[in-house]
Structures are given as structure tokens and as C-alpha cells.
Amino acid sequence: MGGIDWGDAPTRLGAVFAALAAAAAAWTLKSQREQIDEQRDFIRQQSLNLELERAELRAAAEDRKAAQARQIEPPTAHFMGPRPRRRTGRSRETTEELPEKGYLATNVRNTINAPIRAVQVYFGDLAAEPRARVSDTRTGATEGEEETPVRLIGVDKAYRYTSSLMTEREARIKPVSIRFTDDDGVRWVLHGTGKLEEVGEDQPGE
Predict the structure, then answer these.
(1) Backbone angles phi, psi at 67, to 5 degrees
(2) Coil, helix or strand for 111?
């Protein structure tokens, strides 16, 4: 029987161990990458969840802040004054309107259980004047004169505001809006359409 040739055995064993070590290192790196990717996905999902929670909390806080102001009735403006008359000439070409002037009027009524302050009314970009305090909101009876802006409108109280003189045609393009500060000190503008917006202290009409 011939003897075993061990001449290249250490070299072969070394190569095998090196290959196993390289394979183990590659597997370890792959496993680490997978773990890092999983951690990144987890962190990304957590960040998304936190952002959604923050957005929900902000929305809830905004709803609570606006809850009081939303109870104010949107203003409705009415044109008060004579209707335009027509003057007819000898032909239809000379027919024209005589635009007699009147004014816009609206009542601001506090329908919430807290006072509203620094109340102003606008017809378009024109500031309205608070002509009188409405003493009976059912009949519309008024009393007294007020300065602008009205410093405070108490619970279930109302004020009548009127515009300067204008034609009925001009009045049609003057949307009405109310600016007021609620009992929490937040400044709002309420449009006749029902749209409610928070406004800053540097906004016009303060």
C-alpha cells in the first residue's frame, strides 16, 4: 500500500477555511443590510404614523378653536332705498336708468354663549357703520348710536350696520363680511357665504 501524500493538504485546508470565512462574512453583511433596511422601513413608518397623529391633533385643535366662532350666523346684506327709475326719451336708444342711491344694511347677532369683541362689518372693501343697537332681535327695534368698531356685543345682542350711499348696481358687487374677536382672543372674518377664516393682527380692518 502506498502512503498518503499530505504535501498539499495544508494548502487545501487553508483554501477551504478561507472560502468558508468569506461566505460567512458575505452572509453576515447581507444579514446586516437586511436588518438596516428593516430598521429604516420601521423608522419611516413610525415617522409617517407620528406625522399623521400630529396632523389629526392639529385638526382637532383647530376645530376646537373655531367651534365658538362657527356659531355666529353668517351675515346677510339687504339694499335699502328707492329702486332705479327709468326715463324714456323719444326712442329706445335714449332710454336710461336714473340710479337713485340707497344703502346696504345687515344685522350682526351674537348667537353664542360668550361676548364677541372689536366687531367690524365690511361691504366689499368698504367699512360699514354700526348705526344702532338692536334692542329686540325678534322685531328688529333699535336704540342708540354706536361708534366703530363696536367694542363688545353681548350674548344674544345684535347691532345694525349700514353702508355709505350707493346705487343698487354698486351694491350687487359688495359682498358682506364680519370681523370679530372671540372670547379666547382669536380674530376671525366670517363671510356672507359662511366661510370662516382666522386673520392675523396685521390684517386690514383690525
Answers:
(1) -60, -40
(2) coil
The secondary element (H helix, E strand) that includes residue 40 is helix 9-67
Supply the pTM of this predicted model: 0.59
Within a 13 Å sphere around the CA of 124, how many CA atoms are in the beta-carbon half?
10
DSSP conformation letters of 51-71? HHHHHHHHHHHHHHHHHTGGG
Cα 135 to Cα 161: distance, rounded to the nearest angstrom = 14
d(CA 187, CA 72): 13
The H helix count followed by the E strand count for the chain is 2, 14
pLDDT tens-digit readout, 109-163: 888 888 999 999 999 998 888 776 765 555 555 555 556 668 888 888 888 888 8
pLDDT (tens digit, 9 = 90+) per residue, 102-111?
889 998 888 8
The phi, psi pair for 118, rounded to 5°, reads 45, 55
Give residues with Cβ within 8 angstroms of 180, minimum separation 6: 69, 72, 108, 116, 117, 118, 119, 120, 153, 187, 188, 190
